[in-house]
C-alpha cells in the first residue's frame, strides 16, 4: 500500500483489494514506525481516523464512492477540524480543540476521505524550515540532518516518508512549493480565491492559499478537485466552475510556449540548480514546447515587499490571541493589561514576535505611506509584469528554490537568509497566481524541483504540463532510504 498513487489506492478500495480500515491502519502503523524520527505529525487520533475509515467502507460497499473516498489524507495543523486539536504549530493554541470544520476539512469529509492526523508546521506558517514549530523541528526524510522546508514541512515529510499518500498544505510565500521541492514532491499553490480560507488559521490573508502536496501532478489534480469550491464564508472565494483537472492531464502540449524570466536565469542562479533546469527545458523541447525569454522586471522587489505586507497583515490577524476567548492564557497577572502582555510574551515564539513587531511598525502612523502603501504599489507592478508576460507565453518556468535542503540549524540565526528561500516563489503570491513545484532531479543526493507558474485559474494547464513532464521522467517516483 506504500507508495501507491491516489488513483491506485482508489482502485484498490473499489475492487475490494483492501478496505479503508486496513489502509488507514497501515498508514497509522507507518506513522508509529517513522514519526518518532521525522516528527511530521503533531496530533493523531486513531479512533477518529478509524471511525471515518469504517464510514468510508460503508460508502464503498454501497457503491457511493468518489476518487478520495476511504483514502487517508494528512492535514496541515493550520486547518480547523472539529474535535481535533488544532495548534498552527504554536504554544498559543496548544489547548485549542476546534469546535468547527474549516471548509477544506469539510470538503474532504464530504468526499469520504479519512483524516489521518495533523501535520507539524512552522509556527503560524512563518518560516521556511519547520524549525519554528512549538512541537519541535521536522526532519527531511532524504537526510535526517536536513530541514524539510517550511512552513508545510510536516506535510511534505509525511508524504515523502510514505507515512501519508498525500497531504494538505498552505502557501503564503512559498510554503507549499519550497517543502515540495526540498522533499522531492509535487506541490501546487492554486490561484488566490480558488480554495476557501474559511477555518484556515490566518497568517497574511491577502496571500494565504491552501493546496495539495502529493507525489505527482495527477495526485495533485485529484486533491485539488476536492479542495476547490466556492464558499460564501470566505469573501475572497471565487464563484466559478471548477474544471475536471484530471481530464486535461493528457492534453497535447506541443507547440505551446513557456516563458523564461531573464531575471531568474541570471548569475545569481545556483549553477547546479541551473543545470537541472536546463535538463527540464530540454525535456519540454523534446515534447515540442517552445521557449521564450520574458521579463519580470520588478521580481527583485518581491522579498522586501512581502516582508512589509505579510507582517502587516499578520500583526492584525494575530491580535486575536489575547488570552481572553481561546488559546493560551498566562497563569499569573495583576490586571488585564498584564494578562495580555504575559500571554503574548509566553504564547508566541521568536519569529512570530519578530513579524508582529515589523507589522505594527510598518502600519504605524508616519511610516504607513513610506512602507505599507509603497509596498502595495510595487505589489501591483509585480502583478502587471506577470500580466504582460502571459501575453507572450502559456506558462512560466522558474526555479522553485535557490538550493536544495540546508542543514538543520544552518539559517536559524540569520532570518534574512531564511527569507531568501522564497525568492522564486513569493512573487506569485503577491500577484495571486497559481504555481506548482515538481521534482526534477537531485543534487548531492538531495531532491530539487522546478516551478511552473500559470495564469489566473489556469491550474489545468499547470497540471497538464507537469503531468506530461512526469510521464517521461521518474524523479517523482523516487523514495528516500530513511522511509524503508
Ligand atoms: N517563508 C515565508 C514566510 O516565512 C512563507 C511562509 C508561507 O508561505 N507560509 O513568511
TrEMBL record:
Listed GO biological process terms: translation
The UniProt record lists the keyword Protein biosynthesis: yes
The reaction(s) this protein catalyses: L-glutamyl-tRNA(Gln) + L-glutamine + ATP + H2O = L-glutaminyl-tRNA(Gln) + L-glutamate + ADP + phosphate + H(+)
GO cellular component, one term: glutamyl-tRNA(Gln) amidotransferase complex
Assigned keywords, A-Z: ATP-binding, Ligase, Nucleotide-binding, Protein biosynthesis, Transferase
Amidase domain boundaries: 22-463
Signal sequence range: none
EC number, as in UniProt: 6.3.5.7
One GO MF term: transferase activity
InterPro entries linked: Amidase, Amidase_CS, Amidase_dom, AS_sf, GatA
Top-rank lineage group of the source organism: Bacteria
Active site: 76 (charge relay system), 151 (charge relay system), 175 (acyl-ester intermediate)
Purpose: Allows the formation of correctly charged Gln-tRNA(Gln) through the transamidation of misacylated Glu-tRNA(Gln) in organisms which lack glutaminyl-tRNA synthetase. The reaction takes place in the presence of glutamine and ATP through an activated gamma-phospho-Glu-tRNA(Gln).
Assembly with partners or alone: Heterotrimer of A, B and C subunits.
Family that this chain belongs to: Belongs to the amidase family. GatA subfamily.
Protein name (record): Glutamyl-tRNA(Gln) amidotransferase subunit A
Organism: beta proteobacterium KB13
Lineage, highest ranks first: Bacteria, Pseudomonadati, Pseudomonadota, Betaproteobacteria, Nitrosomonadales
Gene: gatA
